[in-house]
Amino acid sequence: MLIRLNKFLSSDQISLKINENFVIDDEIFLSKTHLHKDIIFNGDIFKVDESVLLNGTIKYTFRAECARCLTPFDNVVETKFEANLVQQLDENDESDEIQLKISEGCVDLEEIIKQMIYLSMPMKSVCKKDCKGICPNCGVNLNLEECKCEDNLADPRFDKLKDLLKD
Question: What is the CA radius of gyration of the chain?
Fold first, then answer.
């Protein structure tokens, strides 16, 4: 995804809004992440003194399996990032700031978007906040039906504690 900055950099404007639908065609990346091709990118570019700053938001959807009930679902994630747009990359800079190179008046965001997607993907996805999961004994999806297991299933190691409650 190329953003053309020639007019903006040579104008008196101090900010530029960007709203783009971005399509990733990298099949290897898509298969690893189970990502839908369409990604929404919203951003603002600001001129601050001698610097050019980018504040961006990426919204994407990927196919996931719920960590509690194992149901497949589409997970929507939104992540934000900031970057400095520079004419020349400083290889010796050890700061945590993201730097993107302006080349021929354009900035290519494809790699940074891929990196931000990798970094923002959740370790575990849950289909809904109140997902009940599956029964550990019979394997029934508790979101769809009641479990027919006995309610008094307990760890036998705690049977002695029940005797304390009888008094």
Answer: 25
DSSP the chain: -EEE-HHHHHSS-SEEEEEEEEE---HHHHHHHTB-SEEEEEEEEEEETTEEEEEEEEEEEEEEE-TTT--EEEEEEEEEEEEEEESS--TT--SS-EEEE-BTTEEE-HHHHHHHHHHHS-SS--SSTT---B-TTT--BTTTS---S-TT---GGGHHHHHHHT-
Contact 45, 18 (CB under 8 A): yes
User: Does residue 148 sit in the same domain as residue 102?
Assistant: no
CA angle 150, 156, 160 (to 5 degrees): 115
The whole model's pTM is what?
0.75
Give me the domain span that covers residue 57: 2-128
Q: Tell me: the pLDDT tens digits for 123-142?
A: 999 999 999 999 888 888 99
End-to-end CA distance of the chain: 72
Asked if residue 113 and residue 166 are part of one domain, the reply reads no
Exposure on the CB side of residue 145, measured as CA atoms within 13 A: 7
Return the closest-CA partner of residue 3 out of 35, 44, 33: 44
